[in-house]
């Protein structure tokens, strides 16, 4: 992948994060019945949502690059089948951690919000994995689920410590959108780069034969 395509991924992910934060923030404002004092306050609120979405997108991209490095190292350390098993185990543990950790370890009686959050992440992961497999190959199923569940769970640790449902929704929705987008577009960027790099080599071979 060349630098131009990385910049394309960076800016488009920023826009998706900002759009996700704007939509989530406005919907939450309507649902909660909140109002702003005039146009100036409303524009300031939109600016805050936009900036928050950009920061969430950057955070998502940091997690995505960390996943790429981890995946590269995992393929080098474990055999192919072994690395898939490791990803499956970590994915299941991460999902259970999000849904039930504070229920059993924290001693709290009711954590419906954690279960809903886990189901939301699971649903987003399944949809993303389905589309990814349709676009590529069945081998993309496990890595996509791992990234969408395990990596997203790690990225949400900070907001879960706040323990405010509104903040959790505002962070998680744009985060899932950015993660899904990056996972779904990655193979397109890599494939296009490989095709372009292969063209000069093919031309040089034809010229040498001629």
Automatic annotation (TrEMBL):
Pfam families: KbaA. Signal peptide: none annotated. It comes from the Bacteria. The chain crosses the membrane at residues 42-70, 82-105, 111-131, 138-160, 166-186. GO terms for biological process: positive regulation of sporulation resulting in formation of a cellular spore. The keyword Cytoplasm does not apply. Keywords: Membrane, Transmembrane, Transmembrane helix. This is KinB signaling pathway activation protein. It comes from Paenibacillus silvae.
């Amino acid at each position: 992948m060349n630098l131009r395509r990385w910049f394309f991924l960076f800016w488009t992910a920023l826009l998706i994060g900002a759009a996700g934060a704007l939509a989530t923030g406005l919907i939450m404002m309507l649902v909660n019945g909140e109002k702003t004092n005039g146009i100036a306050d409303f524009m300031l609120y939109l600016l805050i949502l936009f900036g928050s979405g950009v920061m969430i997108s950057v955070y998502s991209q940091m997690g995505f690059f960390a996943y790429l490095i981890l995946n590269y190292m995992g393929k080098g350390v474990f055999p192919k089948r072994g690395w898939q098993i490791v990803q499956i185990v970590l994915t299941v543990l991460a999902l259970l951690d999000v849904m039930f950790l504070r229920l059993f370890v924290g001693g709290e009686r009711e954590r419906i919000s954690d279960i809903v959050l886990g189901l939301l992440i699971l649903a987003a992961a399944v949809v993303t994995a389905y589309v990814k497999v349709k676009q590529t190959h069945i081998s993309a199923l496990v890595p996509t689920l791992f990234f969408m569940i395990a990596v997203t769970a790690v990225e949400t640790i900070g907001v879960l410590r706040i323990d405010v449902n509104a903040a959790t929704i505002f962070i998680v929705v744009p985060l899932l959108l950015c993660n899904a987008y990056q996972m779904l577009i990655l193979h397109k960027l890599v494939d296009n780069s490989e095709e372009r790099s292969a063209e000069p080599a093919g031309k040089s071979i034809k010229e040498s034969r001629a």
